Write a sequence for this structure.
C-alpha cells in the first residue's frame, strides 16, 4: 500500500505528491489515520476501520477528530466525500461486510466510481485493485494469466502465474473494484460467479487441486451505468450474488451546489489553477442543470429535456472548464459568462437537436431572468453567442 | 452491547435537570399516568403489564368523553379489531354559523365526523381489554368531538382542522373511494405533530440521523431492547415527552386546541374521582405522552353545541389505518406492527427479529407471486443485512426502516422505482395487511343502519348479506316488489352505500327492466355509519345528499333533468316537484346544444314513465317542447365548436332527431328543427358535424337518400384538401343515420367508389383510416349489406358473392389472415382511427 508522504508536523494537510490524481487512501491518509486512532467499535476481520468509521469517513463528521499525525497532535476534520442519501452508503458498507458483492448502479456522473474508490480506501486501505470493464475484457484479466516465456521454459508453476487485481485482492483480503462491469460480455462477467460464491479461483494448469482462496476481507465493488445495463445485463446467477445499490441523480439543489463547490475546488487544487467559482455562479450552474435535467423550471414552466444525461459530474466539468478559461484568458474569477460559454459542449454531444433544446431554455428562461439579474444576463449572452 | 440512549445525551444539552424533575414529579404522583402513542405495540404491551400489576379500579382513557358507553361493546368478545370509534355531528340549527361557509349552502347544515381507529395493539384498546378483565371501570376523558369542532370554529378554523378524505376498502380502485367520502372528515387527535415541530425532536433527529418520527419512535421505543421493565419504559417515555413539551410553544398548543382538551381531561378525571370516591392511587390515566404534563386547572363545563350527534363503532380495516392512504392518526405498517406485538407478548427480546423474519418471508412470497425471482437465500441475506444495518445505525434490533432498506439492497436489481416496482408493491401490501374488523351485534344500530337492514328484510334481500359475494339482480319494474327494490337501490347509490351498483343502462335493462350488481361487505356498514350524518333513514339521507348536490351546483338543463330522473327513480316526490319547477328555468337559461340534448333524452324517458311513476305528464310534455325548441335554436351556435366538443354536439343532434322520429315527434315543431339543422349545415366547417346533420336530415326524410349520396359524390370533385376529409363526413353520417344509410346504400357505395377512383395514392392513404373508421362504427348487419352492394356493383351475383366466402385456402393461411386482420384492427385502434 502506498504510504503518505512526509509533511510538516504542525499541519494535518494532505501530503504533497507528484501524482496527478492521488488515490483516496493517499489523498485522505490523515483522515483515515485519525479515524483509526479514534476507533471505538469492533473492526471486521482484515478491515482497516469499523463499518461506523467507514461511514464517518464517507459522510464526514460534524467535529474534527484529534489524532497524532507525524508525531504531532492535531485536529483532523473528516470531510464529506459522498453527497446524497446516507442510506446508500450505509447499505453499501453493510453489503461489503456480508457474503454478497456490491453493484453500484446509476446514471453516468452520479458518483458510483467515486463512492467505490472511497469505500475501498476506507475498508482495505487500497483502492487501486481495479479492472476497467470493456468489450475487450477477458476472463484472464479477471482471474490470472501466465508469463508465456517462462511457461515455455519452465512449465506451469505458481511463480509463473500473473495474478489479476482480483486475485491479488483475494490473497490480501482486500476490496476488488470492477468498473463498468456491464461493458464486458456475459461470458466474461460469469467468471465472477465462482469467485463470488466459492471465494476461490481454481488454477487447473497447476498440479494437484490448485486453488487460490480469498482471505477474510475480500469482496467486490462493481459499478454499472444504468443506461448500459441493457447492453450486457448480468446473468441471473451473477445478479443473485450482488446487492444492487442504485445511486439516483442528486435530488435537491442545495446538495448539488455543495457537490459542485467541493469537487471543483478539489480539482482546481489538483491542477493548481488559481481561480475561484463564486457562490451565485455555482447556484446558477446548478439551477441550469437541474431545470434542464428535470424538464421544468423553478416557476413550473415545462421545457424540453436534452438527450444527454446532465449529471452533477457534468456540472463539475463545466465549472472546471470555466475556471481554466478564466484563469488563462480572464481575471481568474469565474463569472456567469464563463459558465455560459463552457456549457454548450456539455449539453450538446451526440444529438444536434439538443442545440434547439438549449436555445429554448436560454430564450424562454435565462433571457427573462436576465432582465432583472446581471448574472443571468451575462450567462444568457455568453451562451447564446456560443451557440451561434 | 446496548447502545446509549440518544435522549439522555441530548437532555444533557437542554435544561435536563428541570425536564427530568418535571417528569419525575408526574411519574411519582399517586395517580398513575401512562404516556402512550396511538398504535404503538410496545406501549400496548407495557400498558397491559402495568394494569395487570397495579389493578386500578378506574382507567381513564383519552377518547371522547361522550362515548364512554361504547366501552362494553369495544371489549365484547364478538368485537374484533380493527374497529373505529365513529363520532359525527350535524349542526342542525347552525349554532356554529358555518352553514353556507363549510356546507354547500346556507340551508344545508354543517356536518363533520371523525374516526378513532382501534387496532388489536392500540394501547387504548389493550387498556380497555385489560380493565374489563379486572372489572375496572373505563372512563373516556377527551373533549367530545362536537366540542372540539365548536372550539375550532371559535378559533377561526371553521371546524375543519386536519381535514382529510376517508380512504376506501381493500382492493378497491381509487375511483371508488370518492363514493364514500363524506364531507369534513377529521383525523383522530394525536400529539406527533407537536413532537415533530419541537426543537428537542429536531435536534434529536439531526444528531441521531432519524429520517422520520416513525423511525425515531421505533428506534427509541417500539423496537428498543433498552428497557428492562415497564417502569423503565414509562420513565424513558416520560422524559422524551417532557422534553418535547418543554420545547413546544404554548401558543402552538392553544392554536390546535390541545390546552382546551387537556382542561377537559383534567376536569373529567377529578370529577370522576370525586364522584366515585376513588383515591388517585386506585386510578390510572392512559393518554398521549404529551398530555401527562397537562396543566391541572379546572374549567367550568362548556356548553356543547346543539345538533345531532352519533357515536358508534364501525368495522375498520388495515388499509384504512395505513397512513399511506392519507387518513389521519394512521400507522405506516399495520400488519408489521401486529406481528411485532404478537411476538412481543411471549418473547419481547426476540420479537423484532421474529417479526422481521415473518415479514421478509411474506414479502418474498408475495414478490414471487408477482413474478419476481426471489429465493430463500434472499430471505437470509435480507435478515442478515437488516441486522447489520441496525447495528451500523446504533440500534439494538432492526426496525422497519432497516428491513425496508435491506429488502431493497438484497432483492431489487436496479432502480427501486423501475426494476423494483413489484417488490415495492409487495412490501407495501405485506406491511399493510388485509385485516377487516367486526363489531358485536349487541351494539344497537344507528338509525340509518337499522333502516337499511329493515329494508333488506322487507324487500327480501337478506340472502345477499349472508352471501358476502357479488350477485346479479334483475328487476322487473312492472312488479311492485321489484319496483320498491329499485327505489331502494337507487337511494343507496345516491347516498354512496356500496351495496348495489346499477349495470350500464345501455347494455342491460330497458324501460321496465333494471340490472344491478349486489354485494355486501363490512365496508357497507362502515359507509352507513359514515353517512348517518345525512339522515336517519335511507330515504332522508338520499334526499339530503341530492339536496346538497343541488345546492353546490345550480346545474345546466341536462344536469337538472338527470337529477329529476334520479329523484323519480328514488321516489322522492317533494324533490321531484322542486326539480320539475326548476327544470323550466334551467332550460331557458341554457344555450348549449349538448346539455339541452341530454335534458331532452331524460325528459322523454320520464314522460314514458309518467303514468307508472305518477308524474305530471302535461308538465313534462311542456318541458319537452320547451327543451326541443331551445335545442333547435342552440344548433347554429354549435356549428363550429372546437373538435373536443364534437362528440357532445353530435350526441345532441342525435337526441333531437330520435325524439322527433319517436312517438313524441308529432307534437314537436319539425320545420323548426329542419330549418336550424340546414342553417347549421351551411355554416359548419366540420365535415363530421356536416355528415351528422346530413344523416339526420335524411333520417327524418327532410332530404332523400340520393341527396345524401350526391353530397358524398361531391367529395370526388372537390379540391384535394377537402376530398381527404370525406372520411370525417362519412363518420358523421354513419353516427346519425341508420335507415337512410341502407335506403341510399347503392348511391353511397357508388359515390365512394367514384371517390376512390379519382383519388391519388397519397390522397387514398389519407382517406383510408377515417373512412375505415367510419364503417367500423356501423352495425355489423349494415356493414355486411354494404359489402354485398360492393360485390354486386363489381359484377358478382348473389351466388358469386357467397362464393367469395368459400375461397379455397388452407386452414393455416386462414388463421394467418385472421391474425393479420385482428392486428390491423388493433393498430387502427391505437392510432385512434377506429
Amino acid at each position: 500500500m502506498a504510504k503518505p508522504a512526509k509533511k510538516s508536523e504542525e499541519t494535518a494537510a494532505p501530503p504533497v505528491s507528484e501524482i496527478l490524481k492521488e488515490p483516496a487512501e493517499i489523498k485522505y491518509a490523515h483522515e483515515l489515520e485519525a479515524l483509526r486512532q479514534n476507533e471505538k467499535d469492533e473492526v471486521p476481520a482484515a478491515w482497516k476501520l469499523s463499518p461506523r468509521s467507514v461511514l464517518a469517513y464517507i459522510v464526514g463528521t460534524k467535529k474534527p477528530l484529534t489524532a497524532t499525525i507525524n508525531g504531532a497532535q492535531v485536529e483532523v476534520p473528516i470531510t464529506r466525500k459522498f453527497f446524497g442519501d446516507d442510506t446508500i452508503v450505509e447499505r453499501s458498507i453493510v453489503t461489503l461486510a456480508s457474503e454478497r458483492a456490491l453493484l453500484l448502479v446509476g446514471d453516468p456522473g452520479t458518483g458510483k466510481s467515486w463512492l467505490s474508490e472511497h469505500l475501498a480506501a476506507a475498508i482495505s486501505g487500497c483502492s487501486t485493485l481495479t479492472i476497467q470493464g470493456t468489450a475487450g475484457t477477458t476472463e484472464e484479466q479477471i482471474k490470472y494469466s501466465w508469463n508465456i516465456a517462462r511457461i515455455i521454459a519452465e512449465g506451469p508453476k505458481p511463480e509463473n502465474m500473473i495474478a489479476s487485481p482480483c486475485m491479488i485482492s483475494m490473497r490480501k483480503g482486500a476490496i476488488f473494484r470492477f468498473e463498468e462491469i456491464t461493458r464486458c460480455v456475459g461470458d466474461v462477467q460469469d467468471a465472477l460467479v465462482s469467485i463470488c460464491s466459492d471465494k476461490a479461483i481454481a488454477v487447473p494448469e497447476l498440479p494437484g487441486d490448485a486453488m487460490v482462496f480469498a482471505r477474510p476481507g475480500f469482496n467486490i465493488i462493481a459499478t454499472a451505468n444504468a443506461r448500459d445495463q441493457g447492453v450486457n445485463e448480468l446473468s441471473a446467477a451473477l445478479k443473485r450474488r450482488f446487492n444492487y445499490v442504485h445511486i439516483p441523480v442528486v435530488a435537491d439543489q442545495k446538495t448539488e451546489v455543495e457537490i459542485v463547490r467541493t469537487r471543483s475546488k478539489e480539482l482546481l487544487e489538483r491542477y493548481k489553477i488559481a481561480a475561484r467559482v463564486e457562490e451565485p455562479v455555482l447556484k446558477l450552474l446548478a439551477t441550469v442543470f437541474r431545470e434542464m435535467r428535470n424538464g421544468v423550471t423553478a416557476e413550473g414552466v415545462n421545457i424540453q429535456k436534452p438527450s444527454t444525461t446532465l449529471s452533477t459530474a457534468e456540472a463539475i466539468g463545466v465549472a472546471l472548464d470555466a475556471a481554466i478559461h478564466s484563469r488563462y484568458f480572464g481575471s481568474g474569477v469565474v463569472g456567469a459568462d464563463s459558465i455560459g460559454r463552457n456549457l454548450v459542449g456539455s449539453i450538446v454531444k451526440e444529438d444536434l437537436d439538443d442545440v434547439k433544446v438549449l436555445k429554448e431554455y436560454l430564450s424562454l428562461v435565462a433571457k427573462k431572468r436576465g432582465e432583472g439579474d446581471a448574472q443571468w444576463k451575462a450567462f444568457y449572452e455568453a451562451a447564446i453567442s456560443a451557440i451561434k | 452491547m446496548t447502545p446509549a440512549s440518544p435522549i439522555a445525551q441530548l437532555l444533557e444539552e437542554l435544561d435536563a435537570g428541570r425536564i427530568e424533575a418535571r417528569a419525575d414529579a408526574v411519574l411519582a404522583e399517586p395517580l398513575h399516568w401512562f404516556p402512550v402513542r396511538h398504535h404503538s405495540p410496545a406501549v400496548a404491551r407495557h400498558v397491559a403489564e402495568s394494569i395487570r400489576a397495579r389493578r386500578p379500579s378506574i382507567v381513564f382513557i383519552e377518547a371522547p368523553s361522550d362515548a364512554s358507553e361504547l366501552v362494553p361493546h369495544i371489549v365484547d368478545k364478538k368485537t374484533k379489531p380493527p374497529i373505529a370509534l365513529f363520532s359525527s355531528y350535524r349542526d342542525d340549527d347552525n349554532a356554529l354559523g358555518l352553514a353556507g361557509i363549510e356546507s354547500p349552502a346556507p340551508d344545508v347544515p354543517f356536518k363533520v365526523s371523525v374516526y378513532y381507529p382501534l387496532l388489536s395493539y392500540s394501547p387504548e384498546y389493550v387498556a380497555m381489554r385489560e380493565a374489563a378483565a379486572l372489572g375496572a371501570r373505563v372512563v373516556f376523558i377527551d373533549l367530545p368531538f362536537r366540542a372540539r369542532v365548536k372550539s375550532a370554529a371559535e378559533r377561526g378554523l371553521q371546524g375543519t382542522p386536519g381535514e382529510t378524505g376517508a380512504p376506501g376498502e381493500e382492493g378497491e380502485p381509487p375511483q371508488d373511494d370518492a363514493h364514500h367520502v363524506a364531507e369534513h372528515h377529521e383525523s383522530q387527535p394525536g400529539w406527533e405533530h407537536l413532537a415533530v415541530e419541537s426543537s428537542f425532536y429536531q435536534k434529536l433527529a439531526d444528531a441521531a440521523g432519524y429520517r422520520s418520527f416513525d423511525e425515531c419512535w421505533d428506534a427509541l421505543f417500539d423496537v428498543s431492547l433498552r428497557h428492562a421493565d415497564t417502569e423503565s419504559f414509562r420513565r424513558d417515555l416520560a422524559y422524551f415527552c417532557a422534553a418535547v413539551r418543554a420545547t413546544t410553544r404554548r401558543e402552538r398548543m392553544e392554536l390546535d386546541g390541545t390546552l382546551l382538551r387537556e382542561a377537559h381531561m383534567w376536569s373529567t378525571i377529578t370529577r370522576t374521582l370525586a364522584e366515585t370516591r376513588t383515591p388517585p392511587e386506585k386510578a390510572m390515566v392512559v393518554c398521549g405522552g404529551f398530555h401527562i404534563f397537562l396543566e391541572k386547572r379546572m374549567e367550568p363545563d362548556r356548553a356543547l353545541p346543539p345538533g345531532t350527534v352519533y357515536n358508534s363503532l364501525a368495522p375498520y380495516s388495515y388499509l384504512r389505518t395505513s397512513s399511506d392512504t392519507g387518513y389521519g392518526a394512521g400507522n405506516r405498517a399495520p400488519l408489521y406492527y401486529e406481528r411485532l406485538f404478537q411476538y412481543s407478548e411471549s418473547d419481547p427480546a426476540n420479537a423484532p427479529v421474529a417479526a422481521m423474519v415473518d415479514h421478509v418471508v411474506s414479502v418474498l412470497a408475495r414478490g414471487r407471486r408477482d413474478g419476481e425471482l426471489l429465493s430463500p437465500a434472499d430471505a437470509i441475506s435480507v435478515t442478515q443485512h437488516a441486522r447489520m444495518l441496525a447495528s451500523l445505525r446504533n440500534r439494538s434490533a432492526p426496525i422497519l426502516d432497516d428491513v425496508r432498506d435491506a429488502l431493497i439492497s438484497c432483492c431489487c436489481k436496479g432502480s427501486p422505482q423501475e426494476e423494483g416496482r413489484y417488490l415495492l408493491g409487495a412490501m407495501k401490501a405485506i406491511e399493510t395487511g388485509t385485516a377487516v374488523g367486526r363489531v358485536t351485534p349487541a351494539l344497537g344500530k344507528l338509525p340509518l343502519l337499522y333502516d337499511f337492514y329493515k329494508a333488506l328484510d322487507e324487500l327480501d334481500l337478506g340472502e345477499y348479506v349472508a352471501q358476502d359475494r357479488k350477485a346479479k339482480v334483475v328487476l322487473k319494474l312492472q312488479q311492485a316488489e321489484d319496483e320498491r327494490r329499485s327505489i331502494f337501490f337507487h337511494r343507496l347509490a345516491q347516498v354512496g352505500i356500496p351495496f348495489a351498483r346499477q349495470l350500464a343502462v345501455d347494455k342491460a335493462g330497458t324501460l321496465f327492466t333494471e340490472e344491478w350488481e349486489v354485494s355486501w361487505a363490512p365496508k357497507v356498514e362502515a359507509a352507513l355509519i359514515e353517512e348517518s350524518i345525512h339522515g336517519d333513514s335511507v330515504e332522508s339521507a338520499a334526499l339530503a345528499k341530492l339536496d346538497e348536490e343541488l345546492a353546490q351546483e345550480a346545474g345546466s338543463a341536462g344536469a337538472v333533468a338527470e337529477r329529476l330522473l334520479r329523484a323519480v327513480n328514488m321516489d322522492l316526490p317533494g324533490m321531484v316537484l322542486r326539480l320539475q319547477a326548476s327544470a323550466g328555468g334551467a332550460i331557458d337559461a341554457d344555450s348549449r346544444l349538448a346539455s339541452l340534448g341530454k335534458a331532452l333524452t331524460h325528459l322523454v324517458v320520464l314522460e314514458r314513465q309518467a303514468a307508472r311513476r305518477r308524474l305530471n305528464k302535461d308538465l313534462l310534455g311542456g318541458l319537452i317542447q320547451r327543451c326541443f325548441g331551445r335545442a333547435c335554436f342552440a344548433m347554429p351556435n354549435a356549428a363550429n365548436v372546437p373538435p373536443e366538443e364534437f362528440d357532445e354536439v353530435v350526441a345532441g343532434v342525435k337526441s333531437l332527431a330520435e325524439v322527433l322520429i319517436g312517438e313524441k315527434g308529432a307534437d314537436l315543431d319539425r320545420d323548426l328543427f329542419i330549418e336550424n339543422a340546414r342553417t347549421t349545415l351551411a355554416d359548419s366547417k366540420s365535415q363530421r358535424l356536416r355528415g351528422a346533420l346530413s344523416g339526420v336530415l335524411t333520417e327524418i326524410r327532410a332530404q332523400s337518400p340520393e341527396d345524401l349520396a350526391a353530397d358524398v359524390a361531391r367529395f370526388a370533385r372537390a379540391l384535394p384538401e377537402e376530398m381527404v376529409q370525406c372520411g370525417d363526413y362519412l363518420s358523421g353520417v354513419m353516427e346519425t343515420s341508420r335507415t337512410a344509410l341502407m335506403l341510399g346504400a347503392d348511391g353511397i357505395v357508388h359515390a365512394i367508389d367514384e371517390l376512390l377512383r379519382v383519388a391519388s395514392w397519397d390522397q387514398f392513404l389519407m382517406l383510408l383510416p377515417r373512412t375505415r373508421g367510419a364503417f367500423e362504427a356501423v352495425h355489423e348487419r349494415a356493414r355486411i349489406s354494404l359489402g354485398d352492394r360492393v360485390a354486386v356493383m363489381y359484377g358478382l351475383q348473389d351466388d358469386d358473392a357467397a362464393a367469395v366466402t368459400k375461397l379455397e385456402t388452407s386452414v393455416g393461411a386462414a388463421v394467418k389472415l385472421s391474425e393479420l386482420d385482428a392486428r390491423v384492427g388493433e393498430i387502427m385502434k391505437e392510432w385512434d382511427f377506429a
Notes: The interface with chain A takes residues 209, 211, 373, 375, 377-378, 381, 384-385, 388-389, 391-394, 405-406, 408-410, 412-416 of chain B (CB under 8 Å). Residues 159-184 of chain B have pLDDT under 50 and may be disordered. Chain B has five domains: 19-325, 334-432, 447-539, 686-795, 798-834.
